[in-house]
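Reopening closed ticket. The problem is back. First fold of the pair:
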Amino acid sequence: MKKLLEGAIRPILAIIIAVLVGGIVIVATTGQNPFYAYYSLLVGAFGSSMNIATTLTNAIPLIITGLGIAIAFSAGLFNIGAEGQYWIGAIVATYIGYSVKGLPGYLHIPLIIVLAMLAGALWGGLVPGLAKVYTGAHEVITTMMMSYVAIYLSHFLLEDGPMMDKGVIPQSPIINESAKLSRLIENSQLSSGLFIAIIAVIIVYILMYKTTLGFEMRSVGFNQRASKYAGMNVATKLVTSLGLSGAFAALAGAVQIMGVQHRLYDSFTSGYGYTAIVVALLANNNPIGVVIASIFLAGLSTGAQEMQMRTNISGQLTDVVVGLIIFFIAIEELYKIVIDRIQKKKQKMA
């Protein structure tokens, strides 16, 4: 519990400082009351059942993708290509969703989930993982390159390609009813994908903290040499970690297609793969923390519109706050220096 609290201090400090600096930016650039601006933001994110539903809808892909990023981070790997793996999951879900007919929903949806996760695991783990193990290629480069390949592959499939629907608009056919997730609240986009996200959190928590595989992946992330000396197969753990990371990012794409989009658009851009990096950083790779961080960032995005309507402050200000959070998390050494000085002063006074 003590380690959990110590790990939570840094992201909480980063959020508080970012919100304070964001308030200063509001006053300096618009002259508006920052307290009213943040109040409007909160109302827009959590002020009604529909607003909460929208926030949770936006949080679902962040939670699932954030879990994937957290797995890679825990193993000492920086999977920056989650955006591409998300696209791969969306492509597979869309194709299986409209091309496979005659299956009941209780078979069609699991089939999509399994195939999307398998495709994401191969996309994230096979090429970047094997390249890192056998050639030493850094996963930042390989996962990013694979991400671009995935995005351009989707353009190829939709722009007069094999997945383009009839007409001039580059979009896929709509998936079958048996492939759609049920709505939890009428007139909202909140779907039963929320339950898939909760199950994913439980699975990742058990995997990382209650199994030998999870312990070994975290051990490899902490110290590869010591893990190898202890008899662990480091290469296998690296490939497995990247594969699992890709699988969860792809699951997020599949859930988004089945629960919200129902078809793939050529102009479909998510950004979830990049925002999920912030989620994992904020959460310190803890699955429970991933949920909290995802709802926080989704709330910023949802509430920005209400803030803009009430105060005429640009919704882009939330992007500034997110950027500040990343900045204040990144300067980890500054916190260590401050804490060390405080502890030294206490020791002198004792």
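Second fold of the pair, where the issue appears:
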Amino acid sequence: MTAPIMTRPEAPSQGASSPASAPAPVAALPRKRRTNPYSWLTESLGKGVAHVFLIAWAVIALFPILWGVFSSLKANDEIFASPWAMPEVLQWDNYVRAWNEADIGRYFWNTIVVVGGSLIVTMVLGAMVAYVLARFQFRLNRPIFYLFMVGMMFPIFLAIVPLFFVVNDLGLLGTHLGLILVLSAYGLPFTVFFLVGFFATLPESVAEAALLDGCGHAETFFRIMLPMAKPGLVSVGIFNFLNLWNNYLIPLVLNPDPEKYVLSQGLASLAITQGYAADYGALFAGLVIAMLPVLAAYLAFHRQLQGGISLGALK
């Protein structure tokens, strides 16, 4: 005779519901009473004022650009007779005359050479200096950093006369090389100040891993740390590009050769010293040509610029 098999009572499944394990009904939370019955009205008014302000700001910023573009497509008589009207017939010849006869093309290429060379020198040297100041501790670290900060706050008007004699003594007056070196030195303090924060917050473990894998300090900088600082590099690169492209005082003093004028010098010379009053259509066309690279750079990199500024603010 076999003994009866005793079976253990099955435990209730996890999903099964039983009166004992059923969760207690959640009591309805009392509604929070609105402390200010007019808060929605205040919030709506705040949004409305902000939208009106932004629309007004956009109109103020866009109006001169659109007026310049429309004026560049008008004849001279039409510019003076109806300055606020749309062009009756598009005068594309204004751009041809501005490029060929008014030497805007030569000024444009001179500007490309000067701004491109200055931007490359400023970004490379600025990134290297900022990386060393941010990642390496040595005795003169802080004095060198503060020296760059003083250079950023020093007004260019006080340095322009001694700068003229220094460049002249070096035989670089009226040359693109002299202009590139001076503009690069002028942009270095801001570049170093902007990039030190980015390099200081990059993870130390990444650089240590690269060094353990056999990379030297230079290879670690160019292959590892420099790509990681791309948001900061793009942001400060755009700021430097805008500053270099629109710079007028330094080229005016250090670049007296008309054959090597940059755009800011060329446009000022056409509008003032050379009496270009007979062809305002071509002059407006030159202004638009000078403005296009700046607009293109901003439209192409505005997301990176906003992201880099946000990261810099957080860091």
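Update: turned out to be a display glitch only; the data is intact. The chain is about 70% helix and 0% strand. Confidence is low (pLDDT under 50) at residues 1-22. Please close again.
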